[in-house]
Amino acid sequence: MMATTLLxxxxxxxxxxxxxxxxxxxxxxxxxxLAVLSSIILLYLGFxxxxxxxLILKADWLGTGIYFDLRLYQFSAFILLAxxxxxxxxxxxxxxxxxxxxxxxxxYGYVFxxxxxxxxxxxxNNFILxxxxxxxxxxxxxxxxxxxxxxxSHRTAVKSLIIGGLCDFSMIMGIGLIWASTGTLTMDAVxxxxxxxxxxxxxxxxxxxxxxxxxxxxxxxxxxxALDAPVTFMAFMPASFEKLLGIYLLARISLDFFELKVGxxxxxxxxxxxxVTIVLAVFMALIQKDFKKLLSFHAISQVGYxxxxxxxxxxxxxxxxxxxxxxHAMYKTGLFLSAGSVEHRAGTTELKKLGGLAREMPWTAxxxxxxxxxxxxxxxxxxxxxxxxxxxxxxxxxxxxFAIAAWVGAIFxxxxxxxxxxxxxxxxxSTEVPKTRESEWPIVLPILILAILCITFGVYNxxxxxxxxxxxxxxxxxxxxxxxxxxxxxxxxxxxAGVSMxxxxxxxxxxxxxxxxxxxxxxxxxxxxxxxxxxHQLYDLSEARFFDIYEQGVKFLAWLSKIMFKCIDRPIDFIxxxxxxxxxxxxxxxxxxxHNGQYANYLAWTIGxxxxxxxxxxxxxx
Amino acid sequence: xxxxxxxxxxxxxACLPLIxxxxxxxxxxxxxxxxxxxxxxxxxxxxxxxxxxGSFFENINWFGENIxxxxxxxxxxxxMLFTISLVxxxxxxxxxxxxxxxxxxxxxYALLLVMxxxxxxxVLVIDLFSVYLFLEVAAVASYALVAFGLGSExxxxxxxxxMLSVVASAFILLSxxxxxGLTGSLSFQAVAxxxxxxxxxxxxxxxxxxxxxxxxLKAALVPFHAWLPDAHPSAPAPISAMLxxxxxxxxxxxALFRIVYSVIGMTPALSRVLMAMGAISIVVAALLALGQxxxxxMLAYSSISQVGYxxxxxxxxTPLGIxxxxxxxxxxxxxKGLLFLNSGSIQHITGTRNLNELGGLGKKVPxxxxxxxxxxLSIAGVPPLAGFWSKLIIIIALVQAKHFGYALVAVLASIxxxxxxxLIQRKAFFGPxxxxxxxxxxxxxxMTTANIxxxxxxxxxxxxxxxVFNTWITPAADALARGVQQxxxxxx
Amino acid sequence: MIIQILLLSxxxxxxxxxxxxxxxxxxxxxxxxxxxxxxxxxxxxDAPYAGVFEISVVAGLITVLFALTVALTRKDSEVKEARLxxxxxxxxxxxxxxxxxxxxxxxxxQVPALPAGPETGxxxxxxxxxxxxxxxxxxxxxxxxxxxxxxxxxKKEEDKDE
Amino acid sequence: xxxxxxxxxxxxxxxxxxLLVPxxxxxxxxLRSVWSVLIGGMTAFLPLTxxxxxxxxGEVLWSKRLALGLDFILIIDPLSIFMSIVSSFIGFLIIIxxxxxxxxxxxxxxxxxxxxxxxxxxMGLVFSGSLVFIYLFWEIIAIACWRLIGFYRxxxxxxxxxxxxxxxxxxxxxxLLGFILIYVQTxxxxxxxxxxxxxxxxAVLLILFGIFSKSATVPLHTWLPDAGVAPTTVTALxxxxxxxxxxxxxYARLFLYTFKIPEAWQQAVIILAVVxxxxxxxxxxxxxxxxxxxxYSTISQIGYIFLGLSVANPTAISGSxxxxxxHGLAKAGLFLCAGIVIHSTNKxxxxxxxxxxxxxxxxxxxxxxxxxxxxxxxxxxxxFSKLLVIMGTIKANQIWIAALALFTAILxxxxxxxxxxxxxxxxxxxxxxxxxxxxxxxxxxxxxxSVLAGFFVSYPMKLVQMATTHITWWLR
Lengths: 622, 492, 162, 476
What we know:
The complex is a heterotetramer. Chain B is mainly α. Chain B has one domain (4-488). In chain B, 77% of the residues lie in helices and 3% in strands. Chain B has helices spanning 4-22, 26-45, 47-53, 75-98, 105-124, 128-146, 152-183, 188-196, 201-218, 227-234, 237-264, 268-290, 295-315, 319-350, 366-380, 386-400, 404-430, 445-463, 465-481, 484-488, and strands at residues 56-62, 65-73. Chain C contains seven helices and no strands. The chains are: A mainly alpha, B mainly alpha, C mainly alpha, D mainly alpha. Chains in contact: A-B, A-C, A-D, B-C, B-D.
C-alpha cells in the first residue's frame, strides 16, 4: 500500500462531513444511509490498515521542524480500528435516536468531523500536527454539546471548551518544552528522562492527556454534559473516543516520550491521580438520582483505573491499564446506549420514575446487565481480566494504598450498578412510565454487539491481549523475558481474585441493606451512604459545584480582571484624562495672572527682562 | 532696480489719498494689488542675478548725477522681500471685501503701503541709523493701522502698543549711538571692520543687550511680548495678519539677526542667551494660548510661540539651524497670515470671535474650515504640510549641535501647539453645529480666494519643499551664515 | 562741567513735570522749557545746527501747537489715573536712575577715546553727500505721520452711517 | 511592468484618488461609492502582483533625491509586500462593508476621502525605506484617523478623537526625536544603508515610545478603547486592518530589519508585551460596551505580536507575522459583526442584547468562527500564529513569559465566550433583523477566510518564511 493511503482515514471522513453538512434538512433518509455506509467503509479501512502494521508518510508543511508526517504502527492501528468500530456502532444507533432532531443536519457533520480529527491525532507523528487535530476536537465537542437544545447546554459547551482549552494550552507548553530540550518535533524521535525541565514537560503533556480523557480535576463538564448533551454524544465522546485518545496519548507519553521508572516521582503522580479519581468519582456516582449522570460519573472513575495501571510503570500494570481502556470503551458505550434506549422509549432517565422495564425491553435489559457485570469486574467478563491485571500491577509497586483504593472503587461500582439495574429494570413496574415495547433494531443491535464483545474479550482474552496489547508493551519488558498475561488471566483462585470476589459480596450486602432501609425502593439504596456524617457535608458542597475547577476558575478570572482593570487600566487613563489637563490649566492660569492688561505691568516686565538680559550677558562675557 | 521696493510703495501711498477722493474703492484696490504683484514679480526676477553674483550693490543716480543712495541685496534680504511681498499681496486681496464696513479704503491702503515700504527699506538698507529710521516708518504706520477701527478698545490697545514700541526704539537708538561712539561710523561695513579690531567686550555686550531688548520687543519675545496679545485682537484682521505674519519677523527677527550675524558676529554666549529666550517663549506662549477663548488672542500667543521657534533655530549658529529658522519664518508667515485672515472671515460670517459661541461651522462653511485646518496643521508641524519640514530641520540642527534639552522642548511644545489648535478645531469647526449659525453662508469671494491661495501655498510648499528650499532658503542661509565676511566683501 | 550737570538736571526735572502736571497747558509749557535746555546743551557740545533746530522747532512751533489745541478744546475731565501708577512712576524712575548711573560709570571707563568721526564738514554737504538716504526715511516717517493723522481723525459721522 | 512602478502605483493611486472623492461625491453619491470601491480594489489587487517578486527573496530599492538627505526611498521586500497585501485586502473589504453601513449618515465625502487616504498612507509607510517618510505617512494616518474617529461630530466624541490624535501625535513626535538621534549618529535616513549599525539606547527608548503609542500597548493604550465612539467600520479599519499594525510593522522594520535591538531593551519589550496583553485581556473581561471589549482584545493580541517580534527567533517572528494576517481577518470579522448588531439593535451594551442568534444566525456563526480564530483554536488560522509565537518564546527559553502568555490565552477564551453568550444567546430581548446583505456578505467572507487560512496555512506561511529569513540578517 502506498504511504498516501494514510491520508484516507483523515480526508475521507472530513469530505463525508462536508457533504453531510450540505444535504438540506428536508431530505430525510439520504443522510442516515450515507453516514452508516461511510462508517462501514471507515471500519473496513481500519481493518485494512491494521493488517498493514507499519507505514510512514512524510510531507513538508510549515517548515522549521514542522512537517506533515503520519506514522501507522501497531498501537495507532489498533486505536484507529477501535475508533472506527465505535463510530460505526454510534452512527447506526443515531439513525433512529436522532431521527427527528431539529438540527439533524449538523449532527452527522460534526460526528464525522470529530472522527477525522481523532484519526488525524492518532496517526500524527509530529507534535504540531498532533496538537492541531487534538485541539480541533474542542470545537466539535462544543458544537455537539450545543445540539442538546437544553437551556443550559450552551453553558456546558462553553465549560467544556474552556476546560479543554486549558488542558490543550498546557499541552502546547509541554510540546514547546520538549522542542526546546530535544530540538526536534517528530514524535518517534523523542525519548527523554523526566528530570527538571523534562519533568515539567511530562506533567504538562500528562495534563493534556488526562484532560481529554476526563480524569479529575478536569472532569466537571462530563456530568453536566450527561444531562445537557444528546446521549449519542455521551456515548460517542466521553465514553469511547476521548478515553481512547486520552489514554493512547498517556501511554505514548509514559512509554515512548519519557522513561517512566517504577516508583519514580512522575509515576507516583499518575498513581495518586488514578486513585483519587477512582474513589471520589465512584462516591459521587453512588448517590446520583439520574441514570445518565450515574453512568457519566462511572466513566470518570474507570479512567482512574487506566491511569493507575499506566502509573504503576510495571508491564502487567500498563498492559492492564491499556486493556482496561478498550474494555471500558466497550461496556461504557453499551451502558450509555442502553440508557439512551430506555430514554428513547420511557422518555425519562430519572431512576425514581423508572422501574421493572426488563419485561417490556428484554434485549436492552440483557445488554445492560452484561455490561454492568463487566464494569463491576465480575468473572469471566473482560472487566475482570483488566481489573485483575491493574490490581496485580498496583500491588507490585509496593504501595498497597493504591490497590486498596482500586478495590474500594470496585465495591461501590458494583453497588451503584446494582442500584441502577434494580431500580430501572428489575424492581416493581413503575406507574409513571406508560406501557412501552422494545426499541427498534438499530438501537438494540449495537448494545448486543457490545455485550457480546465484552463476553468474548473476557472469556477468550488471548485474542485482544496477543495482537492488541502485547506489541504495545513489547518495548517495556526486559529483552529476555517473554510477556505472557493470558496464562493466569481467568483463574479465580489467586489471593487477588479472592479479594475482588470479597468486594463484590460486600457490595451485594450493602445494596441489600440499603434496599431494605429504603423501604424496598431500589433508587434509595445508596441513601445510608449518602447520610453518613462527614460524607453528607461533602456531598452538599460538591452539589453546589464547590469543587468544580471551572466555577472556581471563572470566579478567579473575573476577580483578577476586575483588579487589573481598576488598579492599572483606569489610573493610566486618569493620568491622560485629568492630570495632563489640570497641569496645563495650572500653568496657563499662572501666566494669565501676569496679563492683566495694565500698561505699567507690561512696562515692568519689559524693563525686568532687559535687566535680566544685561546681567546674563555680562556674566557670560569672557 | 532694488530701490523700486521702497520707492513704488511710498509714491503710491503719497498719491492714494488724492485718488481716494474721486473713486472710493475700485482704483485703490486695483492699484495696490498691482503694485504688490509687481514687487512680488520683481523679487522673483532678482533670484537669477543674486544667485549668480552672491550679493550686489546698487547706487542710485538722480538724472545722471550720482547721489550715493546705497542699498545692498543678497540672498537673505531677497528672501525677506519675497516673503513680505507675497504675504502682503494675499492680505490686500483679502481686504478688498473685508474693509467694506470700515470705509476709507484709500487711507487704509496708503498706511499699508507705507508699512510695506518701511519693511522693504529696513531689509535693504546698509547702515544702522537707516535701520532705525525705517523701523520707525513701519512702526508709526502700524500704530495707526492697529487703531484703524477707532473703537475705544482699538485705541487703548494701539496706545499701549505705541508706548511700548517707543521704549524699545529708544533703547535701539541708545545702543546705535554707543556703537557709533565706539566705531565712529554707522554703515554695517565700517562698524563690522571697526568692531573686529576693537576689544571693547563689555560695551559691545551692553549694546547687544539693548539690541536684544529693543528688537526682542518688536519680535514679541517672551519677557517683552506683552503688547502683542492686546494689539492683535483689536486690529482689523488683515492688519493683525500683517503684524503677526510680517512686522514682528522683519522689524524683530530680521533686524536682530542681521546685526548679530553680519555686523557684530555671533558668539557662543550670545547664541546660548538667544536660544534660552527662544525656548522660554515657545513654552510660555504655548501654555498661555491654551487658556484663551478668543480666536485672535490664541493666534497671537501662537505667533509668540512660533517666533520662539524661529529664534531658537536661527540662534543655533550652524548653517542648517539658520536654514531651518528661515524656512520656519516663511512657513509661519504664510500659515499665520492664513489663520488671521481666516479669523477675519469667521468674524465676517458670524460676527463674533469668541470660541464658546461658535460651534460646528465646518458643515456650513467647508472652505473656511478646510483652510483653517490646513493652516493649523502646518503650524503644528504635522506632515505633509510645510510647517513639518521646517520644524524637522530645526530639531535636526538642535540635535546635531548637541542641544538635546532644547530639542526635547521643541518636540514637546509642538504637542502643546497641536493641543490648542485642536481646541479651535473642536470649538469652531469640528463639533456639533450650534443652532445659531443655521443660516450662515460662505465668506465673500475675495476673502475665500485669499484663504485658498495661502492654504495651497502651505500644501504645495509642503509637498514640493525641495525646489522651494533650494531656490530660496539655502542662498539666504548661506548669506547669513557667512556672517561678518558677507558685509566686508560687499565691495565698495 | 557743573553748568553741564545743571543743564542736564534742569532738562530732566522739566520733562518729569511735563508728565506729572495735571493741567495740560502747564505741561506744554514745561515741555517747551525742557527742549530749551536741550537746545542749549546742543550748542555747548558744538552742534550748532542741531541746537538751532531744537529750539526753533520743538521749543517754538510744537509748544505753540500744543497751547493752541489745548485752548481750543474744552477743558474735559481730569485723566483718572489709578493711585498705584501715580506712585509707581517716580519710584520707578529713581530706581532706573541708580542703575543707569552704575552701568554708565563702569561703561565709561571701558569706552576708548572717540576717534574723530569721518562726518565732519558742513551740515548741508553731510546731509547730501553721505546721509542722503536718511532723507528718504525721514520722508517716509513724515508721510506715515500724516496718513496716521488722516486715518485716525477722519470724520466720525461717516462711520455712523455704515 | 517593473516592480518599482507597481509600488509607486500602489502608493499614489489611493493617495491621489482620495483627493478626487469629494469631486465624485459632488456629482453623485453613486459615483463616489463606485470610485472608492474602484480605488480600494486597485490598491488591494496590485500588491498581489508583487507576490512572485516576494518569492524571489531579496529586496528592490528605488530612491528619488530630495533636499538635505531627506530623499524618498522605496524598499520592496517580502515583509513590505506581505504587509501591503494584508492591509489593503482587509481595507478593501471594509470599504465595501461601509457602503451599506453609512449610506444614510452625513459627511460621507469626508469619510471616504479619509478611509482611502488612510489605506494609501499605510501603503506608503509599508514601502518607505527612509525614516522621515515613515514618519510622514505615520502622521498622515494620524490626521485621517482623527477625522474618522470624530465622524459623528458629537461633543464628547470629538474630545475622544482629539485625545487619540494628541496621544498618537505625542508618541510620534518623540519617535521623530529618536529618528533624528539615529540620523545624527549614522549620517543618513536611508534604512538600507543603516542596516546593522548600532544605535544609542535613548534613541531606542524614544522610538519604542512612538511605536507603543501608535499600536496601543499598555502604558499608552487608553485612546484605543475610547476610539470606539467612531463608526464601526472605522474601528474595524483602526483595529484590524491598518492602524495598530503600523506600530508592529515599524518595530519589525526598525528593530529586526535595520538595527539589532540592544539586549536589555529586548527583554524589556518582551516583558512589556506580555504584561500589556494580560492587562488588556483583564480590561476586556470587565468592559460591557461591545466595541470597548473588542478594542481591549486588540490591545491584548497586539501584545502577542510584539512578544513574537521581540523574542526574535525565526519561529516567533514568522508566528507574529502570520498573527498580523490572522488577527487582521478575525478582528475585522468580529468588528463588522458587532457593526451589524449595533446597526440593527442600535445598542452598545452587551447586557442589553441577548438571543440574537435566533434572528441573525449568519452573523452569530461568523462572530463565533472569528472569535475561535482570535482564541487560537485549530482548524482556524489564529491557532498556528499563536502556537508559533508561544513555541518561539519557549525556544528562546522565556518559559515564564510563555506561561503568562498562555494564561492570557485562557483569559481571551473567557471574555470572548462571555461576550458571545451575552450577545447571541439567552432569551431574545430585541427582535433585530439581519440588516443589509452586503454587510453580512463581507462578514461571511471574512469568517470563511479565517477557516481557509487555517486549512491552507502553508501558502501564507511560505510568504511569511521568506519575509522572516529576509529580515533576520543577524542570524546569517
